[in-house]
Write a structure and sequence with these properties.
It comes from Salmonella enterica subsp. enterica serovar Cubana. By secondary structure, the protein is an alpha+beta fold. The protein has 4 helices and 2 strands. The chain has a two-stranded antiparallel sheet with strand order 1-2. Strand 1 and strand 2 form a beta hairpin.
């Protein structure tokens, strides 16, 4: 397939979508006769009798190998031929938080130095810097 830009009618795009995602279809299952004709004229679809029957039928429309290639480009790599841009960017940021951490540490120490910090709920005294081992202080 060349690099030429191929534009499908809405009907042909619908048929391409159906044939790609659902596989070979009976004539009655195709969404549009004109869309099917358009794909046939482009060499993307073929309608014929098959040597193998499926559900007692053997006359199907299916994508040709060129039609498969086009469908992958048209439906998988792009969204109906329109390129989808998914940009991603990785940013590496370094922030010096030492000044903020220093202020947090000062505030923490001020809280620890208050009398109310020495009391836990219900006025139970809390001994600073105590270690509890085996249930004893």
């Amino acid at each position: 397939m060349s690099n030429e830009i191929i534009t499908l009618s809405g009907a042909a795009a619908d048929v391409l979508y159906s044939l790609f995602f659902r596989g070979a279809l009976l004539s009655g299952d195709l969404l549009s006769k004109s869309g099917t004709d358009e794909l046939r004229e482009m060499g993307f679809a073929e309608t014929r009798y098959t040597a193998t029957e499926y559900q007692k039928e053997n006359h199907f429309t299916f994508l040709t190998s060129e039609g498969q290639k086009f469908a992958v480009e048209h439906l998988v790599n792009t969204r109906f031929g329109k390129q989808q841009y998914c940009t991603s960017m990785t940013l590496g940021i370094e922030i010096d938080t030492s000044a903020a951490q220093k202020e947090i540490d000062k505030l923490d120490q001020r809280i620890r130095d208050t009398v109310s910090f020495e009391l836990i709920r219900n006025g139970v005294p809390f001994i600073k810097d105590a270690t509890i081992a085996s249930g004893a202080i």
